[in-house]
Amino acid sequence: MPRKGENIYKRKDGRWEGRYIRTYEGSRARYGYIYGKSYSDVKKELIEKKAGAGIGKERKEVQDDLFTNISDLWLDSCKNVCKESTIIKYKNLLEYYIKPYMENTRISAIDTHMITDMLLELACSGGRKSVGLSVKTISDISSIMRRIRKFALAKNFCLDFEIEEIRLRKEPRELRIFDRKEQSLLCDFLLDNKCLCHAGMLICLYTGIRIGELCALQWDDISLEKKTLHIQKTMLRIQTDDENQKTKVVITPPKSSCSVRTIPVQDMLVEYLARFEEGPDAYLLTGSAEKYIEPRTMQNRFKSVLNKCGIHSANFHALRHTFATRCVEAGFGRSDTFL
Fold it and tell me: In the chain, fewer beta carbons within 10 Å around the N or the C end?
């Protein structure tokens, strides 16, 4: 593995190899190489070579800067095209995982091996408990690096690295699905104890909508006459830069255009909802336009219901998994998109 940001490697033959930018051809860097018996010898000569490299006036045609500065410029450029929650996600991945590895490293000194080593190290020992990041998180970090690379090239920064595909084994995830008996117990409880929160749980069980979509649902999105729900927004809690308010609740469009949809509602649910109908701006779960129930609160209430029913604990998303499973069992085809 190279020393971070120095482009110095130990070869298989025991020697050390250093690389430096010798000249530029347009925006493409051309490298010179140094070999030595020890790391310190190569580093010393590398410093001298970098200081005396005659790369001429062509160097002025391209830019160079610290990777961390360029990543900040890229993140700032995303603010006009990405949702606030996406910006927070990008910022956290940069601050917690990428920037510490790239500290004080100029983008011209980064190469493909360095990126690959970083991703493998994060996969093996990254994270707060040093047990390695998930395959999904590594994929997200790779995606950010590709976006920064594309941004840097467009801004004429000199760089000489690619983002190679890192193939990691993804352990299959066991999905929690309510069996027929558990579903029957849950439905009986929700039907016998009628309230808006319980209505919301039934809606998720029989339509497969997400918890954030449920919490953002207003009566204007519900047509009892047509027996439909129109899903066009979602609710989530995100981080902020405000020291006095570390998080806040936001309501945004769903995570993809495919998630904007109109869903049929069963007669049983229509009858259940009819007794609670409120004004168009009122949230379904509260009956108020001023008050809402956020996802983590709804999650807690759901677990309380399961406890009262004597059902083994499950995440709220198990309702969506169960709906998808019942669809498959009923012959409606595969429902992978629900899982």
Answer: N
Residue of 327 and 55 predicted with greater confidence: 327
Mean pLDDT of the chain: 85
CA dihedral of residues 114, 154, 66, 242 (deg, nearest 10):
-110
Only one residue has tokens 């029989």, namely 206
Strand partners, 52: none
- The CA-CA-CA angle for residues 311, 316, 320, to 5°, reads 105
CA distances from 288 to 67, 277, 280, 299 (A): 48, 11, 10, 20
* b/e sequence 36-74, b meaning 16+ C-beta within 10 Å: beeeeebbeebeebeeeeeeeeebeebeeebbbebbeeb
CB contact at 8 A, 64 and 24: no
> Can you spell out the DSSP letters for 209-246?
--HHHHHH-BGGGEETTTTEEEE--EEEEEEEEETTEE
Q: How far apart, in whole angstroms, are the C-alpha atoms of residue 199 and residue 241?
A: 36
CA distances from 281 to 97, 145, 217, 264 (A): 42, 42, 10, 21
pLDDT category at 339 given cuts 50, 70, 90 is: very low
What sign has the CA pseudo-torsion 164, 169, 171, 173? Answer: positive
What's the rounded Cα separation, in Å, for the pair 221 and 325?
26
Nearest to 23 by CA among 62, 56, 70, 63: 56
- Rounded CA separation 275/284 (Å): 12
DSSP of 26-76: TTEEEEEEEEESSHHHHHHHHHHHHHH----GGGGGSB--BHHHHHHHHHH
What count of other Cβ atoms lies within 10 Å of the Cβ of residue 271?
10
Cα dihedral angle (211, 215, 220, 221), rounded to 10 degrees?
-10
* 89-135 pLDDT tens trace: 999 999 999 999 888 888 888 888 889 889 999 998 888 888 888 88
